[in-house]
Amino acid sequence: MSSKSEHDKLPIRMLHDRVLVRQDNGDGERRSGGGILIPATAAVGKRLAWAEVVAVGHNVRSVEVGDRVLFDPEDRAEVEVQGVAYVLMRERDLHAVAAERLEGTDDSTGLYL
Asked: What does pTM read for this prediction?
């Protein structure tokens, strides 16, 4: 479990069970499963968000750098590093992990819930 992102080469070493993620840009327009365009201003209920893991602490066991994780955007602490916004959280605050390395497990969805 590396503490440096291969994408950004962040000069950060995460401690304990902390996970640093870069949130997907999901604030714009999106499409429903039927192809209907939903504007960014449309009101939605409580919604979880996906993000990419860019650094992990040495006590993190379930995720690795490069994994995509699902989390509650209301329970987050934001930090800016070198002009890029990141979200800092504990591993226990993650709801799911999506990674190619999980495809060979018994779960057929590729998600660890």
From this structure: 0.67
Judge contact between 50 and 68, C-beta under 8 A.
yes
Q: Which domains occur in the chain, in start order?
A: 1-26+43-113 (2.30.33.40)
Distance from chain centroid for Cα 4: 15
Give the bridge partners for 19, in sequence order.
56, 89
Closest to 63 (Cα-Cα) out of 79, 76, 50, 80: 50
pLDDT in tens, 62-72: 899 999 999 98
Q: Give pLDDT tens digits for 26-64.
A: 556 666 677 777 676 665 667 788 899 999 999 999 899
